[in-house]
TrEMBL record:
This is FAD-binding domain-containing protein. Pfam families: FAD_binding_3. It comes from Streptomyces nigrescens. PANTHER family: FAD-BINDING DOMAIN-CONTAINING PROTEIN (PTHR47178:SF6), MONOOXYGENASE, FAD-BINDING (PTHR47178). Residues 82-133 form the FAD-binding domain. It comes from the Bacteria. Coiled coil: none annotated. InterPro entries: FAD-bd, FAD/NAD-bd_sf. Keywords: FAD, Flavoprotein, Monooxygenase, Oxidoreductase.
């Protein structure tokens, strides 16, 4: 991440009432590891470096120089919408209802699609073209379909990113 204007400086100029920490340019990295549970007491950096034998020295140096306080191991979970419930005045969107793995590259876009669709459906209710429960029901019916497709897409792409010896590779 290269900032044209550091966030702290931008806040001082654009919103003086907002105080931000002094953050410098940075590199964010991630490595998907197989779910074998055998990391033992390894740190995130040790776990990654142990799997980088033969990799370019610059890539290894990137991991070696990473801030250990900002490096962590995370589990990836997915949530595929199953059965619809009766529409009510409260609904869900984004990862709350259809969390995808990052391997599909579509989680944030799907959440934005949810927000736009829900907005359009709620406008229908405000303009009295349908009642609130009907608008929420329309949103949920459409969202369940494409949200489930997004989750399935991310799972289909997963083997290319995190090989698992217990799961056969696609042909």
């Amino acid at each position: 991440m290269r900032f044209r204007t550091p966030p702290k400086q931008a806040a001082e100029e654009l919103a003086p009432e907002v105080t931000l920490p002094d953050i410098r340019d940075y590199v964010r990295w991630a490595m998907l590891l197989p779910p074998n549970g055998s990391l033992g007491a390894q740190t995130a950096q040790e776990a990654v470096l142990s799997r980088m034998e033969g990799w370019h020295p610059d890539l290894r140096a990137l991991i070696e120089q990473a801030d250990p306080d900002n490096s962590t191991l995370l589990s990836i979970r997915v949530v595929e919408p199953r059965e619809r419930w009766a529409p009510g005045p409260v609904t869900l969107l984004g990862d709350a209802i259809h969390a995808t793995s990052p391997t599909g590259g579509n989680g944030a876009n799907t959440a934005l699609r949810d927000a736009d669709l829900l907005r359009r459906c709620l406008i229908e209710a405000v303009e009295r073209r349908q009642d609130l429960l009907g608008a929420v029901g329309d949103y949920e019916r459409q969202m369940f379909k494409y949200g489930g497709e997004a989750v399935r897409h991310s799972l289909t792409a997963l083997p290319a990113f995190a090989p698992n010896p217990e799961r056969p590779e696609p042909a």
